Amino acid sequence: MMLVLMMLIERPSILLLLTFLLAQPCILHLTESSNNFTDQSALLAFKSKISFGPNDTVFSAGNWSTITNFCEWFGVSCSRRRQRVTALNLSYMGIRGTISPHIGNLSFLISLNLRNNSFYGFLPHEISHLRRLRKLQLSNNLLEGTIPPTVHNCQKLRYFSLEGNKLNGTIPSSLSNMSSLEFLNLETNSFTGPFPLAIFNLSSLMAIFITENHFSGTLPIDLCSHCPHLRILYISFNEFSDHCQIKGQIPMGIGSLKNLNTLLLNGNSLTGTIPSTIGGLESLQRLYLDENKIEGFIPEQLCQIKNLGELSLSNNRISGYIPDCIGNLNLLQRLNLSSNQLSSSIPSNLWSIENLLFLDLSWNSLSGPVSPNLRNVDVIEYINLSHNQITGNVPSIIGSFESLRYLDLSKNSFQGDIPQSFGQLKGLDQLDLSNNNLSGEIPKSLEANPYLKYLNLSFNKLSGEIPFNGPFANFTAESFIGNEALCGNPIFGVPPCTSPSSHGSRVKQILLIYIVPVIASLIIFAALVTMLRRDRQCNMHIPSLPITLPEVDHRMISYQELCHGTNNFCESNLLGIGGFGFVYKGILSDGTIVAVKVLNRQLEGAFRSFDAECKVLRSIRHRNLVKVISTCSTPEFRALVLQYMSNGSLERWLYAHNYCLNLVQRVSIMVDVALALEYLHNGRSESVVHCDLKPSNILLDKDLVAHVGDFGIAKILVENDTTQTQTIGTIGYIAPEYGSEGRVSTKGDIYSYGIILLEVFTRKKPTDKSFVGELNMRQWIASFPDRMKVVDDGLLNIEDGRDVTAMKTILSPVLELGLRCSEELPDERLDIKDVVTQINKIKLAILGNRNNGV
Q1: Is 466 helix (H, G, I), strand (E, B) or coil?
Q2: 710 is catalytic
Q3: Cβ atoms of 152 and 129 closer than 8 Å
Q4: Which of 119, 152, 280, 601 has the smallest CB count inside 10 Å?
Q5: Choosing from 692, 710, 749, 792, which is the catalytic residue?
Q6: In this predicted model, which residue has the larger pLDDT, 326 or 251?
Q7: Which of 179, 120, 121, 169 has its CA nearest to residue 149?
Q8: pLDDT tops 90 at residue 602
Q9: Considering only CA atoms, which of 306, 250, 316, 317 is closest in space to residue 280?
């Protein structure tokens, strides 16, 4: 020992080295503690600038205080090894205050999410110190001032959103140096001056939103030609001028954006024509060029964009005709060509677009009659052909458009009678046929439209008695003014009707006694002959033995049994029409009531879909999935025999006026849907993605238990193979990454679930016409600090006896869950297991309150 000590004394360098090695763990511990103390201090400084926080879970006792580890505070996430703050998420908390400059001391911060609060004041320059920052989400606050010019120091920033604030000044050109930027959202602020065009050259850019500001200048001629990954481009409602390089025209190079999913250039001052190169946007699904000064014709090349779902060219100076080929855009759901100078007639094949929901051709110079070959458009909800020069009769087939809610044919030259079939439009709430040359009587069948809120038949040549039952009790004289031969109730501003003449009575008597019975007998006889013929044809073509797919282990059902059970697939048994065929109600030989899904063999890929569907359905069984009883297949016929759901779809219960689900029923249905998704995602060796979850695919049995159906189009995810591009799903419910990148994953189903959850409790569709421009359902809900203001009035009326505070305690988490599930980025959405846990907790809370008499 003495020898060792003497050696250490003689060689002090060794002594120093030994001392350092012994002390190093203490030094590291002190350094780590110091860094942790820095993060804790920064968070407490951030909290000190909060002046109002209504949500007690954020800053409650024991939370956001030194009593507990800051890594356990609400909204704070830390790295496991170093215990440094990596994420701060206080979104949708209703917090009011300023953003402390100490935020810049969180040097390990990767994600900062403070959106949808009431933060005001300036955006601190110290944010530029966050060199590891990848996501900065400050949208929908009250921030003012400018963007710090040094923000480009955050070189790893990928997601940058300042939407919906009060920021002023110009955009710093240094943003174009942020080489990792993928998502830039500056819409709805007060930015001024020219937009830095160099930003359009960022090769990493996937989405850019700069709508509703005061930018000026011109669009570059090579707009985004260096953005190979660009999916979304929103440049709406600015002040881009019509001078300099391109004279305000849409750049010819726009067609090079092969991956672009959404293009919004509406509300600017763009001039010139729509370039023919626009046909090169092969991935485009939404195109909005409305409210500009665009001239010329609609180019035929527009019809090459096969994935187009929404097209709006309204409020321009476009002339010429509507191209016939527009009817080839089979996925089109919204078409708005209003307020232009279009002429000629409406192309007949426009009515063959099966998915069309919204059609507005008003305020043009369209002429000629509506096509006599008009076919039934099942899903269309809105038709506006007003302020044109259309002639001919009003097509009676419009009365079979069962989803139609709004019909405006005013200010045209329609003639003839108002079709009696309009009485079949049970969902119609607005009908305007004014300022035409219509004659004859007002159909009494319109009395069967109890939800008709607005009716305008003024300035026509109508005669006879005005009906007085049903919705007519709420109309005024303004609905009928300008028709000189009308009579009826004096409140309508018309004279009373005189009694019918004796001659008229005699004619009616003869008709009733002699002619009507003869006609009825002929009709009955013809019907019997037709049924016998169809039955013989059915027997001629039906194989004598049951035919089923051999790999499907279900009860064997023959084509003959299905034919008899559906009354030869009679139209009166038709339940609905889906993407791949028709669904009929049927009764099997043992008395079982079923739904028979018959595939349309004329549809491309229908049989291929059937075979793929059967392989998936063979092993799928769950209480909350529609049960497949059997399958039936011949060379020319294929069908699925499904469990019959007597209460129809969730969509029917949400929007039919004679139904209204209470609180427990709505939550229970969403619990059922969550359980079905959990089984599809996690209950099998391979995850099944539904891909098209929506209220019409959620069916209710006699006990209002929900069963998810139509998951046959779902794809089984194989490892490293999660992409498919065959279908775009349904607009409004489809996840953003599916539309922009074609990515299919279970997270897409979570997004659809979140949208449906919001829809169920607001009773508003995501495609509601009140959501225009950039405003969508999520943004609309988030704009209300008091979430009770968005809840369905019908639900609140049913639950009128329930305590208001209790209702708010229950409904706020429901809406919050919907918002979290429908986050724009897939990684920020919940997993289905967490969804099931949370929605179950909400249901238990409701049942607990109800049992306690609340």
Answers
A1: coil
A2: no
A3: no
A4: 601
A5: 692
A6: 326
A7: 169
A8: no
A9: 306
